[in-house]
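Hey,
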Amino acid sequence: MSKQTPPSLRSHPALLALWDFQEVSGEPRLSQGRARYALRERSGPIARIEGGVLGPYAARLDEGDWFSITRQEAPLLNIHGPQAQISVAAWIQRGRTATDHCEAIVGMWDETRRKRQYCLFLNLRIWESRHQVCGHVSSVGGPTPGYKYCMDASIGATPVPWDRWQFVAFTYDGEYARSFLNGKLDARGDRNPYRYPGGIFDGGADGSDFTVGGVSRSDEMGNWFAGVLGGLAIFDRALSPAEIEALHREVPLPE
């Protein structure tokens, strides 16, 4: 049987947008769900390769490749406010980068202009972490008060391996951020779940774009993710641990 997106995922009541990366290189990647948005290549053509998760194909991002949707084109992804909730999920095959740095998978997160909202990362390297799944959230947009950088994130315990398909996700319910690896809460003391009341920052009309594969930092794009994207999904509420586990069961990872 050919790979395809499970109907239960396409019809999930909280699903905003789902990208399966079946389009050919050079074409916009179109989402399914209530938010029908087009991810556009911003660094030149991004390769389509065989061996996907939600279909026969996937997108391969070399370090420096990235997609985005302008803020104005993606109003439903501009999740913010004191009661904001979100879930972000990605089916990835992590690749190695030239240097050891934070790896931004997807979100609305502009560090240059202090317009941080939410972003799924790997390898944040804060709070004695290395290589784990990280759910970055901000209620202030800028650095965490008293620190040089934003330090607010749920950070798992388990390093995400290279060159193997993994299902990574984080949720935020307005009180706690939680990071998941392969359907399970990757618990790590008070770092995961991470208590963070206060909601998500409102970046305003000139806030962050929605970016995939990197974020704006130090006046340029960086924090590159390198590897393969088999799918991305954004939900407009915090999915329960049982729902995250069900997603993992319903979307088998390739060997």
